Every structure is written in structure tokens, then in C-alpha cells.
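Section 4.2 – Deliverable D4.2 (structural model, holo form)

The reporting period included a commitment to supply a predicted holo structure for the target in complex with magnesium ion. Inputs used:
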Amino acid sequence: MAHREQYVEGNKPQNGIHTALRVLSYLAHDRLYLWIAGVLIIITIAANLSGSYMLRPIINDYIISGDIYGLIRMLAILAAIYITGASAMYLQYRLLNRIGLRIVTRMREELFRRMERLPLKYFDTHSHGDLMSRYTNDIDQVSTALTDSLTDILSASLSLVGILCLMIYISPLLTLVMLITMPLMFLTARGIIKKSRKYFKDQQDVLGNVNGYAEEMISGQKIVKIFGHEKKVSTDFDKLNNKLREKSGRAQFYSGLMMPLMQNLNILNFVLITIMGALLAIFRGFDVGGLAVFLQYSRQFGRPINELSSLYNSLQSAIAGAERIFHVIDEPKEPADADDAMELMTVKGDVEMRDVCFEYIAGQSILKGISLRANRGTKLALVGETGAGKTTILSMLPRFFEIKSGEITIDGHPINKIKRESLRKAMSIVLQDTHLFTGTVRENIRFGRLNATDEDVVEAAKLTYAHSFISRLPQGYDTMLDNDGSNLSQGQRQLLNIARAALANPSILLLDEATSNIDTRSEILIQKGLDKLMDGRTTFVIAHRLSTVMNADIIIVLDNGRIVEQGTHASLLALHGKYYSLYEEQFKS
Ligand SMILES: Nc1ncnc2c1ncn2[C@@H]1O[C@H](COP(=O)(O)OP(=O)(O)OP(=O)(O)O)[C@@H](O)[C@H]1O
Ligand SMILES: [Mg+2]
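Output (C-alpha cells):
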């Protein structure tokens, strides 16, 4: 089992700015909150900066002149300013946090809705693990960035502008001195970011592999155990895990370097300004209060830069995550119903296929000109070797996949002219690989028709002989099923699926190996139930056990995507062809 490399794709944003803007476009819904938050941010920053600025009059006018009462008054004002700032900051954090969470909720909602509307083909070509990771990892990354970083980024950038303006106001010359060290800071930051970005990407890739491997081995536990591969699996996992440790170590080392380096550069900056400021104060009469305030600002100036650079990595992976999410959201939907698509009012159930061709993958034709007809009440059986295309034929009817050429009609209406919902309502399907949802037995059967009463549910279960085993379950119809009904036997799961289909009361019934997991005695019972169910409905049955299909009105024998024989059991036997040999194999051995 080769582990998947699915996570490797796209950890590095391809079009970062575009994606970031698109994430932010979700903010449009919360414009009012955003304005309020903006005002709060400005209040916070203004309080912060003016608080610092007040040092200038405090030093120049009160401390130097020794005016104690004035000083106390000024300190009271200062306290009021800082309290206002702190409250505004608190509110702003809460608000932006809420906005961030709402964006993420909306993205998740959109992602989920889109998944419900994706054509089945998408799920065939994308691993479930990968889709799941978009729901979890990627959404988480965006969420963290939005809830934690959005506030920081906004206030850091606004602070930068504010501080810069005030510094220029206090002393353009000192501002110039301060800006000399800026390029140095930027270059260092860029160097580190470049280095660490590579390791962060490596780390994400390997993390993806570790997750993918673990996921695959967990779901394949039984196979691993039965073939005795535990040791190999563990060693493989250790290798990946160690690689992850190594890559994470490097990524963290480099990103950890950022803070101390920046702080040292800040100190250098501070020293330069102090010296220059002191010279200015001595020779040019620059006021001491002004110098103190300027020094204060220069320290504050470094902070948003530090913040922005340390946010960089989290932003980078958030944007990569958003990109992966948008990838799914932008996936073409199941094409919409045509404008003139019709609604099936009453369905008789005459099904016809004319020369239907189909391919899952372009160029590899699977159905090669299938023509068949099943009128209302007909029981049509499809038989043939594994891979012959039986399940594929059934999947064409509810339009799980679109045919390549030919035509399928129901009651004479081409199915691509019928609304999908209406089309699918007309039929019930019991699949080869059954699926049950987390919920009670009753809920699972009711999935067939949501407005069915409890009596309807029981009746459907009785009809399909599921009732007796359900009654024997500890909580009967209220027994909880979880994890795809793993607390039931395969046959029991199948019975529930059949009951679900029965409850839907469709005109067309599609049964794919519906009785293959059921013992012979129960099968005879279910057969009776199914016979009752099939009464008056058009039924397509697939079964490997020919005993199940012997009484069908038409038996279609498929071979490699073509119909090779068709007729009744007796006529096909008399033909001494493919059906005959299949029959011989099953009953004469
Ligand atoms: N989702 C898919 N994507 C690509 N190829 C597929 C897909 N599903 C089936 N196939 C191919 O189509 C062919 C027909 O498959 P199908 O499932 O219809 O066979 P079947 O007759 O139902 O077999 P079985 O008796 O084993 O259920 C097979 O060769 C299979 O490889
Ligand atoms: Mg099949």
C-alpha cells in the first residue's frame, strides 16, 4: 500500500493576493460590523499614540518645571486615555473574532453545499482523505488566520502609519535616522522568511503524508492484521514521523530566529536614535520630552513590523488552505437542469435505452451501444461477469453519470429533459455497497421518504422481511447505528436498504446485488418481499446468483459492455450460449 501524496498539492499559494482578496470578499456581508471594528481600532491606536505623545508635555511642562498638581492632573487624563484605549481594544478583538468565525462558517457552509452538488465523477477522482483534509486542516488554517491575525494585521498596519506620521511631526530628521535601519530589517526578515518558507512547506507536505498514511492504515486495519504487516506499517510510519520531526525542527528554528534578530535590530535602532537625539538636544535645543516620546514611538514602530513578519507564515498557510477550499468551491457543479426541463407528474415506469454508450474516462468506452426496453411492471434482470457493466447501466438511469451518446427515456421522455430531482424521485436504488447513516434504524429507513409515519416505516420493514431482525435488536427501531452500521451484519444492513427503498414507493426499482449478502433461507423470504414490492413497478435486478433472476420477464446477458443475449430463462437456456454456460457453472458444479 503506497501512502498517498495527496496533501502535497498546493501548500504554497499560487495566486496569494487574489485568494486573500477573495477571502476578504466574504467580509462584505459584515460591512457594518467591520466599520464598527475599524472605528474601534482607530480609537485604540489613537489612545495608544496620544498616550505616548502626552509624555512630551508632561516632561517639558510639568516634570521639568516641578508642577506636581499639574502632573497629577495630566496623569489622570493619561489614565483615562489608556482605559478608553484598552476598552476599545477589547471590543475590537471580540468583534473581529466574531467576524472571522462568521467568515469561516460561511466558507465551510459553501464548501459543504458545493460538495452536495458535485457530480459523482468528482468523488471518483478525488480521495476522500483529501476532501476531508480540506474540511479540517484547511478550514482550520483559514480560521486561525482570520480570528487571530485579522485583528493584529489591521491594527499593526494602522499603527505603523499613525506612528510614522507622529514621528515625522516630532522630528523629520530623527525619522530619517530611524528609517536608515529599516532596509536592513526588511532584508533580514525577507531572508529568514524565504528560508523558513521552504521548510514550512516541507513540513506541511510531510504532515500531509503522515496523516494520509495514518488514515489509510486505520481504515485498513483488518487487512493489515490479517496479512501480518503490523511491523512494516509501524516502521514505515516511524520513517515518516521522523521526517516530520526533522522538517518541523528546521522550520521552527528559522521562524524562531526572526524575533531575536528583529529585536536586536530594534535595539540598534534605538541606540542610533538616542545618540542622534541627544546630539540634537544638546546642540539644536531639541526638547527632552520630544526625544522621550520619539524613542517610545520608535520602539512601538518595531512592534507591528515584528508582528507582521511573524504572522507571515500563518498567513501563508492560511492562503494555501483557502486556495484548496476555493478549488472545490469552483469545481463545476452537476450541470443545472435545462430551463425547459420537465417535472414527472405521475410515472408509469416505461424505461427504454437506445444505443447508449458511456465512458467513465474519455476514450475508454464501458457501455457500447446498449438498447433495452422495460415496460411498466416488467422485471428486467442484468447478468454477466464481473466488470461487464451491470452497475454502470443502473447508474445511467438516475443520471449519476451522463451518457455519451444514445438516449434513455422514461415514459417516452428523454431523461436529460427531466428535472433531476423529479427523475430521482421516480426511482429507488439498492446499491451493491450499502450505506447507512449515523442514526436510529427508524431514521435510516425513513431516509427513503422523510414524511413517512412510524407505521409506514414498520410496514415497509415487514414487507421486506427486515421487521423480524429489527424486533430482535436491543432497542428495536430505536437502535442507534453508527459508523455505517458496523454493529449490524452485512445482510441486515442490506435488509435495511431494501426497506428504505420500499418505503420510497417508487415506480422504478433498481436492485444491485440486493440479496447477495443474505443467507439462502432469508433470501427466499426477501425474494417474496421483493416480489411483492416489484408488483406493478418496473424493476432492474442485478444478481450473480441466477436463482434470483430466473423468474424475470427479460434477462439481459452482458459481456464487456455489450448485450450478447436476451430473453427469458427458458429461451436463453435453449440458446445454449453465454447464459447457458453461466447457468451450467452455477448449478452443475
Ligand atoms: N467510477 C468508475 N470509474 C472508472 N471506471 C469504472 C468506474 N466504475 C466502474 N468502472 C469500470 O467499468 C467497468 C464496468 O463496471 P461495473 O461496475 O458496471 O461492473 P459490474 O458488471 O457491475 O461488475 P460486478 O458484477 O463486479 O458488480 C469495469 O471495467 C470497471 O473497471
Ligand atoms: Mg456491479
